[in-house]
Write a structure and sequence with these properties.
- By secondary structure, the chain is mainly alpha-helical.
- It is about 80% helix and about 0% strand.
- The chain has two domains: about 1-120, no CATH class; about 130-228, Helix Hairpins (Orthogonal Bundle).
- It has ten helices and no strands.
- The chain is flat, with a radius of gyration of 20 Å.
Amino acid sequence: MKTDSSNHRTQGKGLIGLLDIIVLILSVVLVVDISVDTLQNIPFYTQSEFMKIQFGVCISFLAIFFIELSIAKDKKRFLIHHFIFLLVAIPYHAIFSLFGWTSSPEVSYLFRFVPLIRGGYALAIIAGWFTKNKITGLFIAYLVILFTCIYFGSLAFYFTEFNMNPLVHHYSDALWWAFMDATTVGSNIIAVTPTGKILSVMLAAVGMMMFPIFTVYITNIVERNNKG
């Protein structure tokens, strides 16, 4: 009985790992599509092709959520800890389009990133597979989250500030702004749009929360070396 139970848990973990890989692949497809259209200045918030891609990704994420729920041993606990993944998998744009609801291009653009929250979690888990040390795994996960926020922040900043901010001429300007803002050092580029100003505050807050992890990680390495 114990062997059967152990095999069942192993199979369940293997299936969840496979689902995380699928989530990551679908997220990469979405990121590539968003990146290409943003850098080419294509107003893809009106494109039916992107809407179909995002709808398919959201439906896949919903299916994966309910598969994981079905194999979870404690379903109530799973719902409590993973409810956010259900919310971000909902195809909001398809629902808005169905009911004829409209929003500004900036809000519509930012909603494109909502499903990628699930992909970021999967990426952090998969990155942790390559280390046995929990502290190192946590450090890698935080690095993944930090650089993901910087990249997405730079894309959104470029989308909202380009042609509006005289200091944003190329995507490299937005990327420079994002890196400097995340380090809380700041740059010579100052947001002029309401969305850009909100992004400035949010990215700086992420940086203040994430960068202390570097100190914790280095301290852990020093302590281990001293014990050795």
